[in-house]
Every structure is written in structure tokens, then in C-alpha cells.
Specification:
By secondary structure, the chain is α+β, with helices and mostly antiparallel strands. Helix content is about 30%, strand content about 15%. The protein is elongated. The structure holds FE2/S2 (inorganic) cluster (2 copies). One of its GO terms (molecular function) is oxidoreductase activity, acting on the aldehyde or oxo group of donors.
């Protein structure tokens, strides 16, 4: 334990215990109060599918599903996920069977470099859970929080449009 300039012993920062279901597995973790969900996933749990693009809630590359709703993991503190059910891109497939949204992205060639793709797919599954988008224009509008530097937007829209009915039938994630 180190001492501060006044001679008092510095107190270690308190970690907070949280429980969550992560990709179907129950987890118990101790997290610092300022740790974001994105840093928890990538740096402590080695789930690096969720990407850190801007780290400011502006690109959507970090999108994951919390209780079925899409959230920016870079703007979500890990302590806010106590009791939550989380799904990342690593948890969407069912064994070797890809999620319908993943299959549609492959079929429609809806990526180039792939950096935005995990966030796009998680966001699209969240969109299916919302049940709000019914045509290409609505998909475009409601996916506008997910940026693609490669400009694969038209293929992304086509993939989502095709997969939405199957996602709704299967109950999304
Ligand atoms: S990294 Fe989270 S929105 Fe860009
Ligand atoms: S595929 Fe490259 S950023 Fe979207």
C-alpha cells in the first residue's frame, strides 16, 4: 500500500461484485466502478468481437445486447449490468449454426474490412427484437447509429431486410 504526500496510507479502490449471464453462461465478477462493459469484455474476459471504434458512443462498433436491447458497451458501465443477460457477437451462433442475421450478412456480402460487423449484427438483432423496422428505409434510419467506414451500407440493409422475419420468428437472440 502506498502513502500519499500527507503521509496517510492510500486506500485500494473498492471493486464491486456483479452477477450476469454472459452468452448463456452465469458469471460472477468483481469490477471497478469506472470499468466500461466494453473494457470488461475485451480486456478482462478476452471477448474481443465487440470492437472499440470511437469509445464515445458515436460509431456503434461496440454494440452488444443487454436483456435483448442493443446498447453501446463503451457507454455502459459494467456495474450497470448486474443481474443482466448479455449477448455479444460470440454468443449469437448456436454451436456451429450461425444466427440468421450472421448468415444473411455472409450471403449479402455485407462487410469489407469487417471492423464494424459485430456491432452491426448485434444492433440488427436488437432491431429485430424491437419489431419496429418494416422496410429498407426504416432499417436505414434505425441502424443509423452503426457507422461503416467501408460504406457497405446497401448490402448491410439488404442483409437485415432479409433476416428480420427469421429473427422475429426465432425470438431474436
Ligand atoms: S466504440 Fe462504442 S460507439 Fe464507438
Ligand atoms: S466493413 Fe469496414 S467498417 Fe464496416
Amino acid at each position: 500500500m502506498s502513502a500519499n504526500p500527507n503521509g496517510a496510507a492510500a486506500q485500494p479502490f473498492a471493486r464491486h461484485p456483479i452477477r450476469m449471464t454472459l452468452n448463456g453462461q452465469p458469471r460472477q465478477l468483481d469490477v471497478l466502478p469506472w470499468t466500461t462493459l466494453l473494457d470488461l469484455l475485451r480486456e478482462q474476459l478476452d471477448l474481443v468481437g465487440s470492437k472499440k471504434g470511437c469509445d464515445h458512443g458515436q460509431c456503434g462498433a461496440c454494440t452488444v445486447l443487454r436483456d435483448g436491447k442493443r446498447v453501446n458497451a463503451c457507454l455502459t458501465l459494467a456495474v450497470m449490468c448486474d443481474g443482466a443477460e448479455l449477448t455479444t457477437i460470440e454468443g449469437l451462433a448456436d454451436g456451429d449454426q450461425l444466427h440468421p442475421m450472421q448468415q444473411a450478412f455472409i450471403k449479402h456480402d455485407a462487410f469489407q474490412c469487417g471492423y464494424c460487423t459485430p456491432g452491426q449484427i448485434c444492433s440488427a438483432v436488437g432491431l429485430a427484437n424491437e419489431g419496429r423496422a418494416h422496410d429498407g428505409a426504416q432499417i436505414q434510419e434505425l441502424m443509423s447509429g452503426n457507422l461503416c467506414r467501408c460504406g457497405a451500407y446497401s448490402n448491410i440493409r439488404d442483409a437485415i431486410e432479409e433476416a428480420l422475419p427469421a429473427c422475429r420468428r426465432s425470438g431474436g437472440e
